[in-house]
Design goal:
It is built from one helix and no strands.
Length: 122
C-alpha cells in the first residue's frame, strides 16, 4: 500500500511537472511571439523614421540645390556687373585721357596763336 501511495504521489508530481513545463512552453511561445511582434514593430518604426529622415534630407537637399542655383545666378550677375563697371571705368579713363590730350592740344593751339601774335607784332 505504501508503494501505491508513493506511486500516486510520484504520478501527481510528474503531472504537476508536466503541467508546469507545458505552462512554461506556452509562456515561452507567447514571449517569442511578443519578441517577433516587438521586432517587427521596432523595425517598422525604424523604417518609418528612416523614411521620414530620407524625406527631410531630400527636401533639405532640394532647398540647397535651389539656393545653389540662386547663388550661382547672383554670382554671374555680379561678375557681369563688375565686368561692365570695369569697361565703363576703362572707357572713362581713356576718355579723360583723351580730353586731357584735347585740352593739351587746345593749349598748344592757344600758345601757338599767342606766339604767332607776338611774332607778327615784332
Amino acid at each position: 500500500a505504501s508503494n501505491e501511495s508513493e506511486v500516486k504521489a510520484l504520478k501527481a508530481q510528474l503531472k504537476s511537472a508536466i503541467d508546469s513545463m507545458q505552462t512554461m512552453n506556452e509562456e515561452m511561445e507567447s514571449l517569442r511571439q511578443q519578441l517577433i511582434t516587438s521586432e517587427k514593430s521596432s523595425n517598422q518604426e525604424m523604417v518609418t523614421e528612416l523614411s521620414e529622415l530620407s524625406d527631410q534630407t531630400s527636401e533639405e537637399l532640394s532647398a540647397l540645390m535651389s539656393s545653389k542655383h540662386i547663388i550661382k545666378s547672383e554670382v554671374n550677375t555680379l561678375a557681369q556687373e563688375l565686368s561692365a563697371q570695369n569697361i565703363r571705368h576703362s572707357l572713362s579713363d581713356s576718355s579723360s585721357s583723351c580730353s586731357s590730350i584735347g585740352s593739351h592740344n587746345q593749349l598748344t593751339t592757344n600758345s601757338d596763336k599767342t606766339r604767332d601774335e607776338i611774332n607778327s607784332g615784332e
